[in-house]
Design a protein that fits this description.
The chain has about 220 residues and is α/β, with parallel strands linked by helices. It has helices spanning about 5-25, 25-35, 50-55, 75-90, 105-110, 120-130, 135, 140-165, 165-170, 215-220; strands at about 40-45, 60-65, 95-100, 180-185, 190-195. It has a 5-stranded mixed β-sheet. The chain is globular and about 55 Å long. The model has no long low-confidence stretch (mean pLDDT about 95). Bound molecules: zinc ion (ZN).
Length: about 220
């Protein structure tokens, strides 16, 4: 990026701050005092999928975590830290796992090329593909298969969010928390609900359930 375009970013920023202030003179004072977002967005790092803009939310309204291919990996302390802070401290009401069609990360997982270190990250997506092989066999083109993998990956990450101790403990103490899986189409800018939402421990397989110290079962032990 040239020096001119960096200068431009600061100019854009001053213009944006001026416009926001004109529309609501208290906006920045309120924002600086506290953030109280109702949503945690877990999305792809892809520059074409900006969290706030897509759902028409302002700064302060959505807590955001993005990584390559919107993954929730149980050993990823970065993602888990964001989730824990969002659920336990900010008390968000919804976790939105948002993938997008034709995701480069998902495509790289689908293809068998050697991409170096990132393949270890994407191996989690390969596991999703392996678990649903028959669905892929039913499709003809690679593009369709990649898009199916984008959808299945979102659903799998929703399951991962629900299987964390963080979400299960929130449910056990009666906190309202809905986890959703959505997918965004770059071609038309539209979001689609993949209908895999969950808001209770009964929706996750028994073997993944944690007997929380907040639950009735724990007091019986
Ligand atoms: Zn992506």
């Amino acid at each position: 990026m040239s020096r001119t375009s960096i200068t431009e970013l600061f100019r854009n920023n001053r213009e944006w701050a001026r416009e926001v202030h004109e529309a609501d003179p208290d906006f920045f004072a309120k924002l600086a005092a506290q953030q109280s977002p109702e949503y945690l967005w877990i999305g792809c790092s892809d520059s074409r999928v900006p969290a706030n803009q897509i759902v028409g939310l302002l700064p302060g309204e959505v807590f955001v975590h993005r990584n390559v291919a919107n993954m929730v990996v149980h050993t990823d302390f970065n993602c888990l830290t964001v989730l824990q802070y969002a659920v336990d401290v900010l008390k968000v009401k919804h976790v939105l796992v948002v993938g997008h069609y034709n995701c480069g990360g998902v495509r790289a997982a689908y293809e068998d090329a050697d991409n170096g270190m990132i393949d270890n990250w994407l191996r989690n997506i390969k596991d999703v593909q392996f678990a649903h092989q028959e669905k892929f066999d039913a499709l003809d083109s690679d593009d369709e298969k990649v898009d199916l993998l984008c959808e299945l990956n979102v659903m799998s990450q929703v399951a991962n969010v629900c299987r964390t101790t963080i979400v299960q403990n929130a449910w056990a103490r009666g906190q309202q928390l809905d986890v959703h899986g959505w997918i965004y189409r770059l071609k038309d800018g539209l979001l689609r609900d993949l209908n895999c939402s969950a808001n209770s421990v009964e929706q996750i397989p028994e073997m993944y359930r944690v007997i929380s110290k907040h639950s009735d079962l724990a007091t019986l032990r």
